[in-house]
Amino acid sequence: MKSYLKKNNNWLYVSGITLYVFGIILSTIFDKDVSMEDNPIIGMISQMNGWIMLIYIAVIAPILEEISFRSWTVNKKWTKYLSLILSTIFLLLANPYIGGIYFLSFLAVIVFLKNKPKPTLISLILITTIGFTLAHIGNFEKNIFLISTPMYIGITFVFTYIALRFKLRYSMIAHGIYNFSLMLIGGFIIPFGDTITLDEGNYKGSLRPVSGLVSTDGVSSYGGYSANIQKKFLPEIISILESDNDYQIKTYPEGYSFYSLDVKTKDSLNLIDINALSKEIIRKTNIKLDTIYETRDVLFVEIEDVEKIKREVKEKMKVDEFPQSLSGIIKTISRFYDQTIIMPEEYKNVMVDYKKEFSTLSSNESFEDISKRLYKEYGITLRPKKSKVKIIRIIE
User: Model pTM?
Assistant: First the structure.
């Protein structure tokens, strides 16, 4: 098969570049705003230590993926089986059904076409290209992934060409350079944007661009006498500052520039006006807001005995206990469990006695468990209904 490869694999390079360019054009024409909430890659990048992410994306991932999907190009029997096993694991993680079909297809090529070099080559190129593309299906929202498919197929053809024409290690290097370039262009390594001075009312500070390599290990805080929000996308910063509003928020970064917000009060006796601060950031940046309405299944708050809750709060206040708003608890639960919970107007000003177990939530506790505790502590039932939900979209 080697002699055939040397003479006949140029089509991979040409078609790969063509498909990649076509994918870029397609993405430009059908440009979609990428939602941070629905994009696991963006979410992971914004939460993890940047240096760890750089090593993973530019070094570890290229090596693992090239061994898994292109070690068969070494043209030894055992490398085909190595590629079969490792690439199937990638596909099984993405989707068990796709992984099963992929495994059987790959195995059939190895068994039934073992003495036919040309059909074997073409089949393995196509199968592993499809497999590599589908292994990345979890990186994006489904509609974004479909638009990006030609780019994935194109770059896979190029990596396969390099592995066949030269050696597997060179496709690893090319893959690493490609991933590094994406991080560089995306503003992950070099910060994009200007530092913005914020000076409105009782606060003063700055909003500055930072490299995505900045660690997120530090604790971010907002509200009170200072606001410190580290390494977030601009839309995400606005969504944090707008967290006290009743409507739902979805954020859509068009770019991937990170910012840090550092603001303090001019007068230590007054609190920062979070709403005024968010408006100032919107005014001084390229943030856009619009409103849409969606009909969806939601949960309405129903309280068994509101007067009982009010009496309990008055009793607690006598012993200097600190009450908190019921709407604040519901919003915390709603965001933590990604549930749409509607608080009727008559309950929005209800204060409840402070419960430490509601101040911090644990991923070990299911939403059903938290619903039971709400009923036990406050007589609250979350009743499912269909309703129109107001959504504020924050777009950079």
Answer: 0.73
